[in-house]
Specification:
This protein is mostly helical and 316 residues long. The chain folds into 2 domains: 254 residues, no CATH class; 44 residues, no CATH class. Helix content is 66%, strand content 0%. It contains 12 helices and no strands. Helix 3 packs across helix 8 and helix 5 runs antiparallel to helix 12. The relative contact order is 0.13. The N terminus is likely disordered.
């Protein structure tokens, strides 16, 4: 009797098989809940910081930092459990001929689609909440160009965070451990985003943070250095009863400035004194941030493949 040689499905075929499996899991295991969750988080952030973003220096820094955090949270929550929850199944299938590159790239393709959907939801919610977008992008000189560049930036932040969570999911062995690690990683991203003052000895750590390059890219896109600074003015208003000589109060002086129509000029000059070289609004700076985020995604994906290739040696 003739014995036919069994042929395994190739890497491309396995990738699409697992991609279809991920779509089934997304529907039947209720993983689709990450989409309405992204809408809720974007809505909360828009209500808190939406009015000042892209309008003032302080509002833009707070808003872009918050949007970066939203994207990182979405990315982490998307994939922090996806590998470790089926680790035993994957180990058996690997012994039966599963290519780990196919498995990981199926996850990556799925997360790309999911990140794109979350980006669209986030921008849509921001628009519904009344966030005022700019009239031109840095590379594309049109309102639509700004929206495209904003979408690309938010998408790359989400995807790189997604890839980081996927890497963690390939390293840990239980969903409990994964969910324990996730808040710690999120705190690290927040602390070293460059938003808070940190010791000079730790400043280089920020270069390894998704949050830093996400916030920097969004600030550059939002023309941070060209915006007025209102924080000092508002603080001076709060202290308006302070006498500065001859019975004249600080509030009186500010009233004169406003009556002369000089308030906007003062705010603009305050903004010039608060400029940050990292947030310069040039296409090169924005592209530089995109390259960093893409590099993070590639490195995290590569590490995920390496750990998955050695899954058979895991005896824990």
């Amino acid at each position: 009797m003739e014995i036919k040689e069994f042929k395994y499905t190739g890497r491309i075929g396995q990738t699409f098989i697992y991609l279809l499996k991920l779509f089934r899991i997304f529907i039947f295991r209720n993983d689709w809940k990450v989409l309405p969750m992204a809408a809720v988080i974007a809505g909360l952030v828009s209500m808190v910081v939406g009015k000042g973003i892209f309008q003032t220096m302080e509002g833009t820094l707070q808003g872009t930092f918050a949007l970066s955090c939203v994207c990182i949270w979405n990315g982490f929550f998307n994939s922090i459990q996806v590998i470790c929850r089926e680790r035993d199944v994957v180990k058996r299938e690997h012994r039966a001929g599963l290519h780990m590159t196919s498995y990981v790239f199926a996850h990556l393709i799925f997360q790309i689609l999911l990140s794109a959907a979350q980006t669209g939801i986030t921008i849509g919610i921001c628009k519904m909440a009344g966030v005022k977008f700019l009239s031109a992008g840095l590379m594309l000189n049109s309102p639509r160009g700004f929206m495209i560049e904003l979408a690309i930036t938010l998408f790359l932040i989400t995807l790189s965070a997604d890839a980081l969570a996927l890497m963690i999911s390939s390293i840990v062995h239980t969903t409990t451990t994964a969910m324990t690690v996730m808040p710690f990683m999120l705190i690290v991203q927040l602390v070293f985003a460059g938003y808070f003052s940190i010791p000079a000895s730790l400043s280089e750590i920020t270069d390894l943070m998704i949050s830093k390059w996400g916030t920097q890219g969004l600030c550059a896109l939002g023309h941070y250095n060209d915006l007025p600074a209102v924080l000092i003015w508002n603080r001076m208003k709060d202290a308006g009863t302070v006498k500065i000589g001859g019975g004249t109060s600080l509030s009186d002086v500010m009233g004169v400035v406003e009556s002369m129509g000089m308030r906007d000029r003062v705010l603009q000059e305050l903004g010039k004194a608060s400029q940050n070289a990292a947030y310069v609004s040039t296409p090169e700076n924005l592209l530089f941030c995109w390259i960093h985020l893409l590099t993070f995604t590639a490195v995290f994906t590569f590490i995920t493949v390496v750990f998955m290739e050695f899954i058979d040696r895991d005896r824990r």
